[in-house]
Structure formats: C-alpha cells, structure tokens
Amino acid sequence: MKYYIIAGEASGDLHGSNLMKGIYAEDPEAVIRFWGGDLMNEVCRTCGRAGKTEGEGLVHHYREDAIMGFWEILTHGRRLLRNVSECRKDILRWKPDVVILIDYPGFNFKIAAFSHSHGIRTFYYIAPKVWASREGRIRKLKEYVDRLYIVFPFEIPYFKSKGVDAVYLGNPLVDSIVGSRAMNESREDFLNRNGLDDRPVIAMLAGSRKGEISTMMPVLTEFAARMRKIPEYRDYQFLVAGAPARNMDDYSPYLHEDYEKSGIRVLFGETQSIIRHAEAAVVNSGTASLETVLLGTPQVVGYIGGKISYTIAKHIIKVRYISLGNLILDRLAFRELIQDDCSPENLVLEVRAMIEDSAYRQRMLGEYEMIKKALGGAGASKAVAADMIRNVP
Fold first, then answer.
1. Residue 50 has what pLDDT?
2. Hey, which residues does 33 pair with through a beta bridge?
3. Which of 1, 60, 288, 369 is the most buried (most CB within 10 A)?
4. What sections of the chain are H helices per DSSP?
C-alpha cells in the first residue's frame, strides 16, 4: 500500500518516524512518500524500500518551513501557499492509497480538503489543538478527515462532546522514550561520548524554530551566567540541546567567543540524553516539556513569543496552561514562565528551588508519575499503524 505522510516541524518528524516504524512492521509491502525531517528519513532508509521502489522517500524537509505564531503565519503566507500547491501536485502524480497528516494544521487542513475532494482516504494523526483555539476547525475535521487519531487522554471527552469519533490508542512519545538511548545508557557513557566531565548538568532547550531560538537564547545565556556567579553553581555545566535541523549558526549569535569557559555547551543529537542526565531543565514549551516528564527531570517551562502573536493569542487561546503535562493533569505540575515572566532572575529562582528544595522536587516528580499513568504504556505507534491499515479499503 502507498502512504503519503506530511509532518511540518520537529515534533511531527519525531511522531512520524515512530508511526513509520509501525507501518513498516505491520505492512511489509508499505511504500511511504513524505514531507518531514531527518528522523523520518532515517526510518525510511533503514526500514523501507528507499532506492528500491519508485517514489518512496523524502519529498520536502520541514527545516525552513516551520512557522509558529499568528503574525508569523500571515507574513509567510505566500511561501506556505506555494508549498501547498507543490504538495497537491505531488499527491496527484503519485496517487497514494492514503494521506496521513500529522499536526501542522495551517498547512495540513488545506491538504485534507484537497485529498478528500479527490477521493483519497485521509487520516489526521496528532489532532490540531482545537480545544485551545480556533474551535471552528472541528467542522473541517468532520468534513475532510476519514479518521482522527488523538494522543492525549483529556481529548477523549472533548472530541466526543463535539460529535467527532476520535481514536485514542496511547501517546507515541512514550514509545520514543522507552526505547531511547537516553533511558538505556549510563550517565558516564553520556558524559564520555560528549567529552564532558563529571560535574552536574542543567539542560537548556530553546525550541526548534529560529524565532524561538532568537528570543530564548539571550535569556538562557544570561540565566547561566547568573547561576555561575552563585558559589554552589560555579562548576555546573549548562548544556543547550541543539534542535533537529538546526546548526551552530543558529546559536552562535547569542554566545560570546569564550562561551564554553562560562560552562555553556551546545550539543546536537543529544536532546533526550541531556534532559535525562540533568539536575534540572529549562524547557521551551512543546513536545519537549512532555519528553522531560517522561525522562523524569524536574523542569520549568519558559516561553517568549512575538509581541504581536502573543497579543493575538491572549484573546484566542482558551486553555489555562501551555504545557502538555499540565494540561493532562489540569493543574500546575511544574511552573510556566511566559513572556515577561520568563526572565533570567525568575529562571534562577525556580531552578534553585528544584535543586535545593527536596520536598518541592519530590512533589513535582510525584506529579510526573500521575501524568505518565494518564498517558498509558508503550505501543501506541504500532497500534495506530495497525488501525490505519485496517481502515484503508
């Protein structure tokens, strides 16, 4: 069977790669063509028929197209529409049996309408967050999508109340953590692999998009500098997790020439290991905050959006929290510092509390266990793949 998968950002690439593993396992004859990133491409190369079957493989990399924020989407609309046009033409040429859309609603709803209008079976994996904003999109889900797969337990009653027959088979992030190198390696192996010594680590995640990096990195570097001035933290190592599809050029403008002497290092391809082996983490909101829960490291979420986008968002977004773990519990398992609250001073106070206040730290880790229990166990990716295959005529 021929599958056409579209993921438009780093988190979609992660979930898409796990889904592809499930598809190849459940359908040995699967041929997958996709928009995505390095993780999906690696699965195709190792598990699929890339180079052996015409059309299989990566069509377009998300690297330069991941856009976030209401204003940013408006200002990059021409590029978005050009990519939509290219994608439509490619789908018609290739004639897949099913189109699978992963999150990325600004782009993927346009493709859903198109594929549906051409009689192509259309699945949506990782539902757009209509429970947070733009609830009117539910009509499009009902009209254009043949089967919707959700990944958070709190979405079950929500979509049911809206008359959407959504399928919940667990969260695929659990799969990526359970089988990850980070969960199965020693701290010593991690340190040796990256030329690090045995000093404590604080993880810093600035996000995966250029815009997020540009707003978060100045705050994170100042936070690290202030921490290093405190005697107890003078020898700490502050590790920036380089995002997938980014490179050192995206981070270097925010680092002085001797930044490594200040205890800061940027490591690529080590995000989960950095989090796993850190004393605490400062995490830009998103999939990474839920990864941090599953990896068991105390965290504070910091987020700074564009001023215009944030002003618009305040009037549109309906949820009380921005982090998936807090949304799952419907309470603050860990703090969220947003916009002006996300300052070096506040980050220092919160990270010190997570490290120095053992009762505070244990309460947070106890909340993590509740989040993990709500998500369920491993196996979601394979279960979703099997259900998709059963539901293509």
1. 65
2. 4, 57
3. 288
4. 10-26, 38-47, 70-75, 77-94, 105-117, 137-144, 155-161, 172-178, 181-184, 187-193, 210-228, 271-276, 287-295, 307-316, 324-329, 344-356, 358-375, 380-390
Angstrom distance (rounded) from CA 208 to CA 300: 17
Residue 221 token pair? 């570097």
Residue 48: pLDDT band by 50, 70, 90 thresholds?
A: confident
**pTM score of the predicted model:** 0.86
What average pLDDT is seen over the chain?
91
Dihedral over Cα of 57, 60, 63, 68: its sign: negative
Identity of the amino acid at 20:
M
Give, to the nearest 10 degrees, the angle between helix 10-26 and helix 287-295: 70
User: Which amino acid belongs to residue 319?
Assistant: V
What CA–CA distance (Å, rounded) separates 305 from 298? Answer: 23
Backbone angles phi, psi at 327, to 5 degrees: -65, -40
Q: Which helix (H) or strand (E) holds 283?
A: strand 280-283
Residue 223 corresponds to which amino acid? F
- The CA distance from 150 to 166, in Å, is 6
| Residues composing the chain | 393
Phi, psi of 66 (to 5 degrees): -75, 110
Rounded average pLDDT over 168-189:
93
d(CA 7, CA 107): 10
Report phi then psi at 102, rounded to 5. -115, 110
3-state SS, residue 202: strand
Averaged pLDDT for residues 212-234: 95
For tokens 């998300």, name the residue. 62
